[in-house]
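Now for today's protein.

===
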Amino acid sequence: MRISEKASQDGRGAVSERSGLSGPASRKLPVSPRERRPALAALAVLLILGGALATTLLVMRSGERVSAIRVGQQVGAGQSIPISALEEVEIADTGIARVLWRDRESVAQGYAAVTLLPGTLLTETMVAESSGDVGPGKALVGLALKPGQLPVGLQVGDVVQVIYVAGADKGTDQGTEGRQQRVLATAARVHSIPTPGRTGGSGLFTVRVDTSAAPAIAQHASNGQVALIKLPGVK
C-alpha cells in the first residue's frame, strides 16, 4: 500500500513536472489592441452625409415648379394680346425661357411680335411692349442670316432694306440674276440680333416689317434667299 501510494504520488508529480515544463511554451504572445483612428471614421461619416445632402438637393431642385404663361388662343402678329388668350401652366424650373404667370397683366398690355399659336409657351421675344415695335399693320420676321447676307456691325434699331437674292442655282447669267433680285421691304427696322461673339456675326435676326411683306420675306428667308442692306441715313 505504501509503495502504491508513493508510486501514485510520484506519477502525479511526473505529470505535474511535464505540464509545468510545457505550459509556458503553449502560451500565446500578447497582442496589442487594434489601433483606432477616430479622425478617419469622422471623415467617412461626413462624406456620407454630404453625399446624401447633395442628392436630396438635386431631387428637390428637379421638383421645383413655376407658374408660366401658355397661349390659349391664336393671336395674330401685330395684334394686341387679350388676357383671355393667356393660360397658367406649371413647368419645371429648368431655366428655359418663359414669362411668369404673375406678369400676365403687363403681357396683356402689349402686342404679339409673332403669331401666337395655342399651346405655345410664351417667351419675352414673342411680346412687343409698345405699338411702336409691333402694332396694327406691323409684324416681326425672323431671318437666319450668315456672313455676307448682312453688313458688319448691324445693331438693334438700324433701318435696313430686305433684299431677295436668288440662289446660286437660279439663273445662268448675270443679267438673269439681276432681274431676280428685288426689294422685299424698303425700310425694315432691326428688332433683335444674336448674342455677339458666339456665332461670328451670323444667327437669327428679327426685323420689323409691314404685315403685307411679312409672308414673302419669311418664305424667302427659309430658303436662305434674303440679304439686308443698311440705310445709315434713315432713322
User: Anything to note?
Assistant: DSSP finds five helices and nine strands in the chain. The radius of gyration is 42 Å.
